[in-house]
Amino acid sequence: MKKQSNIISQNLTTLRQFHKYSQEEVAEKIGVTRQAVAKWESGETIPDILNCDALAELYDVSVDDLIHFNQKKERMPIPPRGKHLFGTVTVGERGQVVLPKKARDLFHIKPGDLLVVLGDENPQSAGIALVSGDTVLRNIAFLRDMLYSGEKEDNK
Questions:
Q1: pLDDT of res. 147
Q2: Which residues contact residue 48 at a Cβ distance below 8 angstroms, ignoring those fewer than 6 apart?
Q3: Which residues contact 73 (CB under 8 A, 6 or more apart)?
Q4: In Å, how far from its chain's centre is CA 33?
Q5: Can you list the residues of the chain whose pLDDT is less than 50?
Q6: How far apart are CA 40 and CA 98, in angstroms?
Q7: What pLDDT is stored for residue 2 in this prediction?
Q8: Half-sphere exposure of 43 (CA within 13 A, CB side)
Q9: What's the pLDDT score for residue 63?
Q10: Do residues 30 and 58 lie in contact, with contact meaning Cβ atoms separated by under 8 Å?
Q11: Of residues 101, 107, 71, 64, the one with CA closest to residue 86
C-alpha cells in the first residue's frame, strides 16, 4: 500500500505542477480542502475513488494512470488521457524498428499487418507517424487531410 501511495502522491504533485495549479486551486476545483490535497501529495493519505475520478478529469488523465503510472519506472511523465508514451526504440542499420509490445497489443498490430508511414518536415510539427493501412484504405480522405493539414493552416 505504501508503494501505491507514493505513486499516487508523485503523480498528483507532478500533474498539479505541470498544470500550474496551486493546492488551493485544485482543492477548489474538485471540492475538497487544501489540506486534503496536501496530504494526498505528501502520501500521508490517498484520495477516495470519487476524488480520484475528479482529479483524473481535472488533469485529463485516466484514473488507471493516475493511480498506477510509475513515472520513475517509465522514466517519463504521466500521459494525457488517450495518449500513450511507449518508450523509445532504436533504428536498425536497415531502418527497421521494433514496436513495443504494449503498443502492438493496444492497437492489435500483428505480423503481416500493413502500416502506412507518414512524415512531416515542417519545423513546428516535424515527425513520423504510423497509421493502420486499413484506416487509410477505408478512408482516402483521412490520408489527404493528414497530408494537407499543415498547408491549410499556413494559408490562413
A1: 64
A2: none
A3: none
A4: 28
A5: 154-156
A6: 39
A7: 62
A8: 11
A9: 95
A10: yes
A11: 101
